[in-house]
Design brief:
Elements lengths: L2 E7 L3 H14 L7 E7 L6 H7 L7 E4 L5 H11 L4 E4 L5 E2 L3 H9 L6 E9 L5 E4 L18 E4 H6 L10 H11 L4 E12 L3 H4 L1 H16 L3 H15 L1
Parallel strand pairs: 1-2, 1-4, 2-3, 6-9
Antiparallel strand pairs: 4-8, 5-9, 6-7, 6-8
Helix pairs in contact: 6-8
Length: 239
Amino acid sequence: MFLSVVTVAFRNYEGVLKTWRSLRNLARDPGLSFEWIVVDGGSEDGTREFLQKRHGEFNLRFVSEKDRGIYDAMNKGIALAQGRYTLFLNSGDAFHDDVALFVRQLARQKGEAMYIGDALLDFGGGHKIRRKAKPGCYIYHSLPASHQAIFFPTSGLKKHPYDLQYNVSSDYALAARLYKAGYPFRRINGLVSEFSMGGVSTSNNLELCQDAKNVQRKNITCARVLGAIILFITSENDG
């Protein structure tokens, strides 16, 4: 199995439908093997019944039970993942139309790394902005790419799962720990996903900043100054 797509959901039937429809964009490449893992928090909105009807489609496997929050649910997805890489595309998020082109490039890569791409941020009213992946050293400040555009090595995720002590920045903490453990970021040109702004990590700004400081203090403090210098030099060269 090449890729595991993990979707976390809770009382978001319409969001699950949207994500499911976008999987067709990934399935356009018949040579790509992938599985869809859905971790539902025990919703009673028709999600379970829908998934039962989709049994076997996109190598679907799912669980529907109570959890301790989104990051606990993501860890359940990691435990089930069998692909070489894992990408988190939660309910309501969608693959971009061109994602198959991106994944073809990914399949040609060698070495254990976090492969990152671009994402479309939907602000509503037809207003969308492309968030381009930044240099890997941006991790000393924040995630260098949208979480929905990072292909994680599954073996690394199983060693370094989400830390439940962070309420809104566990995705940042996970990437920082993987980076510290020797998994670099490698950018591939292309769009991976699109999603609406307003998720857990985009709607709690104050808590997000506090969590981020704790992540940096515990994982990457010693290298922050060097990282900032590298980021500045890279930005100057790009300009």
